[in-house]
Amino acid sequence: MNAPHLARKRFGQNFLSDPNIIRKIIEAIRPAPDDRMVEIGPGLGAMTEPLMARLDHLHVVEIDRDLIARLKAAHAPDTLTIHEGDALKFDFAALAADGRPLRVVGNLPYNISTPLLFHLADSAERVKDMTFMLQKEVVMRMVAAPGTEDYGRLSVMLQYRFAMARLFDVPPGAFRPAPKVMSSIVRMVPRPLAECTAIDEALLGRIVTAAFGQRRKTLRNTLRDILSDPDFVALGLDPGLRGEALDVAAFVRIANHVAARDAQI
Ligand code: SAM
């Protein structure tokens, strides 16, 4: 018998313990036997076991050595491949190098959720879909519409690359130890590349970061170093607006205008 595992705060460990919620998450994922799937942070296996029951094979990425030892003792490598290490550095695209797209799932460590989402976005081309449990507040920001308080850099950069939907909420009581916050399940499906029309995605990222850097300020101020008055005129863009008023397409239009302008210099 294994000794009880003491949850490690630094690894964001809140383990799912409510069987009804676990069932609901697995139903939302709908695993099919031949799916190529990777679970981030399997922990004590709350989702891993029911996923494995439906899949021919599962990949997991886990950072905690104690949990890795437990997983290794419990499962044979022909049904479970354990990748030991930091999901922030893991090459997800490599798992789908043969062209069969990847499904990514997990009850994510909340302390690294934003950098992890950006890291995963880099592999979006190889991904079929992603279903995650995250802090509700983060999910609300991911799916927020322009003009709302939650709308910001995370919304624009992820909505540029993914269609996203908040599926349902999960209360703190579904975990051991219970987190202080509500959680939500979010589904992310990469948009077709033809819809991702930014000429320079790094430039788009810089513009979005600048536009939301000081939320109360107008675009004239926040984009001062990027757009001049003639640029605002050429774009038909009111410099008195704030970043939160612009939808994803408007940010892409600005970025492509700047890319084309700078290419002519
Ligand atoms: N899936 C389990 C469950 O639902 O009960 C555990 C979820 S717990 C919120 C997060 C898991 O991610 C833990 O197992 C933790 O050790 C792991 N983890 C934390 N940081 C990680 C990282 N950087 N890379 C990979 N796994 C990580």
C-alpha Rg (nearest Å): 21 Å
CATH 4th-level superfamily of the largest domain? Vaccinia Virus protein VP39
- CATH fold-level assignment of the largest domain: Rossmann fold
CATH C-level category of the largest domain: Alpha Beta
The main pleated sheet reads as: 7 strands, mixed
- Under the CATH scheme, the architecture of the largest domain is 3-Layer(aba) Sandwich
Structural class: alpha/beta
Number of helices: 10
Strand order within the widest sheet? 4-3-2-5-6-9-7
Structure overview:
The chain has ten helices and nine strands. The protein is of the alpha/beta class. It folds into two domains: 9-193, Rossmann fold (3-Layer(aba) Sandwich); 201-263, rRNA adenine dimethylase, C-terminal domain (Helicase, Ruva Protein, domain 3), CATH 1.10.8. The strands form two sheets. It has a seven-stranded mixed sheet. Strands 1-8 form a two-stranded antiparallel ribbon. Helix 4 (113-121) runs parallel beside helix 6. The mean pLDDT is 96. S-adenosylmethionine is lined by residues 11-16, 40-44, 46-47, 61-64, 67, 86-88, 107, 109, 112.
Task: Write the SSE topology.
Elements: E1 15-16, H1 19-29, E2 36-40, H2 48-54, E3 58-62, H3 65-74, E4 80-84, E5 102-107, H4 113-121, E6 127-135, H5 136-142, H6 153-161, E7 162-170, E8 175-176, E9 183-190, H7 201-213, H8 219-222, H9 229-235, H10 248-264
Parallel strand pairs: 2-3, 2-5, 3-4, 5-6
Antiparallel strand pairs: 1-8, 6-9, 7-9
Helix pairs in contact: 4-6, 7-10
Supply database-style keywords.
Rossmann fold; 7-stranded mixed sheet; alpha/beta; two-stranded antiparallel ribbon; Helicase, Ruva Protein, domain 3
